[in-house]
Write a structure and sequence with these properties.
The protein has about 190 residues and is an all-alpha fold. The protein is built from seven helices and no strands.
């Protein structure tokens, strides 16, 4: 189910799917992101609900230390995700399309705040959250899910960055050179305004 979720996520986010949707939806295409977001939340809920229903073995017995470490890592990840979602929730969710025209709702390159340290902080936070959870709850099914989510995301980032290069050109290329993809690295400078 995780593989299917990831594949549908990529297909529906692709330029080709958006072009086909634009032809089919006409002026209603401005709501595509909103419909996409609703579909993503419903399908994510279905996959997570199914995963929670699986009786799966623990790979090791959690200890107080692993529970604390997992909780700290996971909560740190949720904090990073929360910062990102707060920063661009209206755009990501598609809610902007309900009250702005296409030109006003246009995407802007995010290089301030948490984006000064990593180019994809939402994914960094996601990895911290899911792997922190696994440290606290080391179930086999969670390990499999996390491996699929991590592998897919690392693959999808390359694809996403190609789209960002098409959209933002040299500005994004300079940003790539200045800021690491997922992990803040010592010695890497932070983004400056272009």
């Amino acid at each position: 189910m995780w593989i299917l979720f990831c594949a549908l996520h990529s297909i529906l986010a692709s330029i080709r799917a958006k072009q086909k949707a634009q032809k089919l939806m006409g002026k209603g295409f401005r709501l595509y992101r909103l419909w996409y977001t609703l579909f993503a939340f419903v399908s994510l809920g279905a996959v997570v609900g199914y995963q929670l229903s699986i009786d799966t073995p623990y790979l090791f017995t959690p200890t107080l230390l692993s529970n604390i470490a997992g909780a700290l890592i996971g909560l740190g990840g949720l904090l990073v995700m929360g910062i990102c979602i707060r920063k661009y929730f209206m755009h990501l969710s598609g809610l902007k399309s309900l009250y702005l025209n296409d030109e006003q709702a246009a995407n802007k390159l995010q290089i301030s705040g948490i984006h000064r340290f990593v180019r994809h902080p939402l994914y960094t936070g996601t990895f911290m959250a899911i792997w922190g959870l696994w440290v606290a709850v080391p179930q086999l099914s969670l390990l499999i899910a996390n491996a699929i989510i991590t592998g897919y995301t690392i693959w999808a980032i390359r694809w996403e960055e190609q789209k960002l290069l098409q959209e933002f050109g040299d500005d994004y290329r300079r940003y790539q050179q200045q800021v690491p993809r997922l992990l803040p690295l010592p010695g890497k400078s932070t983004a400056h305004s272009f």
